From TrEMBL:
It comes from Lysobacter cavernae. This is LysR family transcriptional regulator. PANTHER family: HTH-TYPE TRANSCRIPTIONAL REGULATOR, TRANSCRIPTIONAL REGULATORY PROTEIN. Residues 13-70 form the HTH lysR-type domain. SUPFAM superfamilies: Periplasmic binding protein-like II, Winged helix' DNA-binding domain. Belongs to the LysR transcriptional regulatory family. InterPro entries: LysR-type_TF_proteobact-type (IPR058163), LysR_HTH_N (IPR000847), LysR_subst-bd (IPR005119), WH-like_DNA-bd_sf (IPR036388), WH_DNA-bd_sf (IPR036390). It comes from the Bacteria.
Length: 310
């Protein structure tokens, strides 16, 4: 009799199956789950169909609006979450015993900070050549509990309580425009809110600049929107209007001019964040301390005092 094989299976359900269930539940669609897991849509479809055939029940109801767990699916998703959390905890605790100054450290940060942090990674490489830094540049918040990343460098108003965060600096936000735009409008527009504005779209509604614009700028003055701060910067460089940018970004762009004081309501802290279970990993701790010191040394850049990256 042939022995049934599974991939790290619990009772015939593989860990990969559990990860698929969690991803579908989190994203609400099979396509979103496939993207999160780094597999193609057809593979995710086959894996879900195979899992449902093995358990003898539908785990999700399919509809145009997405995938909704069935009662059986909710039981399976809850179990997957418990098992996944235990495995993530074990992974972090085992990693915490690693005292080597070699290996990989994964750092997540925003794309707007790359011109500041990339030179720091080069300096760190000269100091610790055995440590390889992997950078995930994205605006999405990575899950440090699942070790999507080991360290995060983020400008954000709040940090989850279960994480360890060190405040690096205060990030000032100020209005910027291209000289070409100002040449056309500066003589006729006196109030900041009276300019043509380039605003973040709904995906960035949580950032301080978006909140300030929503409060102080009339909707009819918004002439353009973008889903990233780099998109807003490029639109401002093209002369479309005024936009609000972090000073560490706007002050380093020679094609833009700051046209007013920093917006106090939009200021946010810059944090260096990790998971408490990873603090004892020597390579992570060494990199974290290096980044904290070097970023603190550039506090004037973040606060808008016209400093340049070191």
């Amino acid at each position: 009799m042939r022995k049934k094989q599974t991939n790290s299976a619990y009772g015939g359900i593989a860990l990969d199956d559990l990860r698929l269930l969690q991803a579908i539940a989190e994203r609400g669609s099979l396509g979103g789950a496939a993207k999160q897991l780094g597999v193609d849509h057809s593979s995710a479809f086959r894996r879900l169909a195979s899992l449902e055939a093995r358990v003898g029940a539908r785990l999700f109801e399919r509809a145009r609006r997405g995938y909704t767990p069935t009662p059986t699916g909710e039981v399976a998703i809850a179990a997957a979450a418990r098992i996944g959390e235990e495995l993530d905890t074990l992974d972090r605790r085992l990693l915490g015993e690693d005292l080597r100054l070699s290996g990989k450290v994964r750092v997540t940060t925003t794309d707007t900070l790359l011109h500041v942090v990339a030179p720091l990674f080069a300096q760190f490489r000269e100091r610790e050549p055995g440590i390889v830094v992997e950078v995930a540049a994205a605006n999405a918040i990575f899950d440090l509990s699942r070790r999507d990343a080991d360290l995060a460098i983020r400008p954000t108003a709040t940090v989850p309580e279960h994480l360890v965060a060190r405040r690096v600096a205060s990030v000032a936000i100020a209005p910027y425009a291209a000289p070409s735009y100002l040449a056309r409008h500066a003589a006729t527009v006196t109030a900041l809110a009276g300019h043509d504005w380039i605003a973040p779209d709904e995906s960035l509604s949580h950032v301080g600049s978006a909140r300030w614009i929503a409060t102080h700028v009339a909707p009819e003055r918004i002439v353009h929107r973008g889903d990233s701060l780099l998109a807003l910067l490029q639109a401002a460089k093209a002369g479309l209007g005024v936009t609000a940018l972090p000073c560490y970004l706007g002050d380093c762009e020679p094609a833009l001019q700051r046209i007013g004081a920093a917006l106090p309501e939009a200021t946010v802290p810059l944090w260096l964040i990790t998971h408490p279970d990873l603090r004892q990993v020597r390579r992570i701790g060494v990199l974290a301390e290096f980044l904290f010191e070097r970023l603190r040394a550039q506090a004037a850049l973040f606060s808008g005092e016209r400093a340049r990256p070191a």
